[in-house]
Structure formats: C-alpha cells, structure tokens
C-alpha cells in the first residue's frame, strides 16, 4: 500500500489548510493498493496490482468554488494543486446549490475492518487459491472463470474550519462462474479478510448448480411466486433504496412522491405502510459482516439509521443542499444497506414453497418507469422451477418487468442474511413477480 498512514494523511491535510489562501478549503485524500487475479476457461489470465494516491483540493471564495487534484505527493506538486484550485475558484460562477463547509463532527468510536494478512496477500497466494478452483472445475468437467481480488484503502478528509477524519480498511472478493454444457451458475463473496472467503464451499456449490441447470425447460410467461437468493435480491433492493431520495420525492419525480387532487407535488410518503411488515432495512456501516467507515466523503456521519421499519419508510436521503433548502438535518447517503432477516435458510424457504421459481441472479436491470420504479431485467446463471417444496428442474431464463415497490409489498418469507458486496441481504420469497418473455441468456 502507498506508504500513507492515517496520521500522515491528517498531517498533510493540516499542511494544505495552512498553505491555502482561499476563504474556505476542503481536502480529500484517498490512497490504497488493489490486487486482482482473473481466470478464464480454467486458467489464470491476468495478474494486476495498482497502487494509487489521489489528493483533491476544493477552494472556495464566497459561493464560487473549484476543485483540483493530484496524484503526486511531493510538496511542490501539492502547492501547485492548491494554487490551481484557487485560480479556478476565483473565475468560477456562483454555485446555485452552494452549501457551507461541514463543521467538525463526532464520529462513532470504532475502527473499520482491517486484516493485515489481506493487506499483504501476495500474487502467489492468490494463484494457489485459483489453482484449486481451476483444477476442481477441470475435474468436474466445467469451464470456470472469475476473479479473486484484495483491496487496502485509506480515506482522509478535512477542511479549514476544523473537520478531520481518517480511516483504513481491507476488502477481499471472490467471483466464480461455472459453465457445464449449456448449464451455468455464478457466485460472489465479499469479506473483510481473504481468509473468510468461502472459496472451496462456493466452488463446489456453483459447479453443482451449473450441472443441475443443464437442459432447461420452457414455461409460460406470467406472474409466479419467486424465491430470490441474497445476491439476486440485493441487485433489486438497491434500486429501491437509491430512490428513497428526498428531493426527487418532494419534486414529484419518485414513487415516494405524494400529489394533490390537481396532480401537483404535495410532500412525500414517509410513514405510510408501503411494503410488507417483514421488510426491515437500515443504514448500518458497523454491521459485523461489513465494518465500514464512520464518515462519508463529504464529512457527514455514516451512522446507524432506520430506513424501513415494519414495511414503513422511516426517512429519506437528503443531500446537503436539499436539507438546507428544506431546513432539516442532512443525513448522507443510504449506504451501506442492511436488511434484517430471519433464522431460516434459503433451503427452508424453498421447502415451504408449493410452486414457484428460484432466481439465482438478476441481470442487466434497467428503468422502465422511474416515477413508479418499474424496472426490467433478466434472470441468468441458474433459474429453477420449484414444485412441492423442492427444486424440480431448470427452466429457461426469463425477462421480467416489475414494479419494485409492489415486489416489496409481496414479500412473505425471508431468511438468513449474508454479505453481498457491501450490503447484507437475506434470501426472500415474493408472492408474485412478473415475467414477460423468455431470453437467450445463459
């Protein structure tokens, strides 16, 4: 990793503040090392590593501001970046959505997840793990592809009115797609430590599911009960959370918007029973499976917040500008997402399903109607018909057109949550989910 420690980053921020001639200055430092090994058709195809450092300096004169950045760490380059941001700010027009600098904050007293073994994980060690995956794929007659990556990251921020924060964390990620004849399956696992990745277990499960997905049958398109894996549901849930934005709701551009009898915007739908009572979603960066940072890039606190409770939206995400315009406290982004689950497994949910579809992965999700939050997308990498509480046979992949608020209203079972990227999501069952056509995707 770049030889940057948190204390050094904060010292550099102090130096930049002292050198600044602007009325206000904000500094953001991001530094880290990422390493990635890719494999395809059962052999490693790429080993790369990247060591990066970026210093961004935003200078302001009144409501006029500008940002300049550098990846150089010598003081001459940093001084030049300071002056360049000041010069640009002096000629910049006033920002109509200007907000003042964030004052000093009191962040949670905890340390983000950091694993020394992951920070120093070597290409040889990555290669040994992927050697197992490739050899196992060959043994099972499958074609395996995917990646294994590690990341060590440092973030530090500060400004001229005393805001200071810095944190470091690690992340490891394993992704694997197995193809066997015309069958396919996929898995992905993210963890703080590379040693916590369930590589062997997930490799075997993915190959088995690829084998089971061969020779898919066709079904009549329509609405069916659907059981989603955590990864598939995470892809859809994030669209709902992204759209819990106060400004779009207040301006009448969101499913969270209320309108009067003339159709004009009339507030938002906070406090209404919009979803199933099973839906409980929080912003929870301190969750044991995540242990992410305590602050956002603009300096706001990334603290715990109820987003949806018992199916009722509790709050909306306010940008600093919109919070200022509405006279409320800025709350920062709704990230990371954690959805509360239950004690039953994915297999338990399947066992309680008389008839329906198991979706392993939701793919290429796009808007159909942003106002109503109707989206379209496809299933892929293993879609199965459920009959009498068991997986009966694979089916052809399907395209769906679905209102996501309706999807959350129709949830009638949830299971044990797991980490999906930087979210924690359970498997769920939805009473009705709308499929519109068969696709050629694998």
Account of the protein in words:
- The longest helix has 17 residues, at 75-91.
- The mean pLDDT is 96.
- The chain folds into two domains: 6-210, PmbA/TldD fold (2-Layer Sandwich), CATH 3.30.2290.10; 216-441, no CATH class.
- Strand 2 and strand 3 form a beta hairpin.
- It is an alpha+beta fold and 442 residues long.
- Helix 4 packs parallel to helix 5.
- It is globular.
- It contains ten helices and 21 strands.
- Strands 3-2-1-4-5-6 form a six-stranded antiparallel sheet. Strands 7-14-15-17-21 form a five-stranded mixed β-barrel. The protein has a four-stranded antiparallel sheet with strand order 12-11-10-13, with no helix packed on it.
Keywords:
442 residues; alpha+beta; six-stranded antiparallel beta sheet; five-stranded mixed barrel; 10 helices; 21 strands; 39% strand; Metalloprtase-TldD/E_C; TldD/PmbA_N
Describe the SSE topology:
Elements (H helix, E strand, L loop, with lengths): L5 H14 L4 E17 L2 E19 L2 E7 L4 H17 L24 H4 L3 H17 L3 E17 L4 E17 L2 E9 L7 H14 L10 E6 L1 H13 L3 H5 L6 E3 L5 E4 L12 E3 L21 E5 L2 E2 L6 H7 L10 E3 L6 H6 L3 E15 L4 E14 L2 E5 L3 E6 H6 L1 E4 L3 E3 L2 E3 L2 E11 L4
Parallel strand pairs: 7-14
Antiparallel strand pairs: 1-2, 1-4, 2-3, 4-5, 5-6, 7-21, 8-9, 10-11, 10-13, 11-12, 14-15, 15-16, 15-17, 17-21, 18-21, 19-20
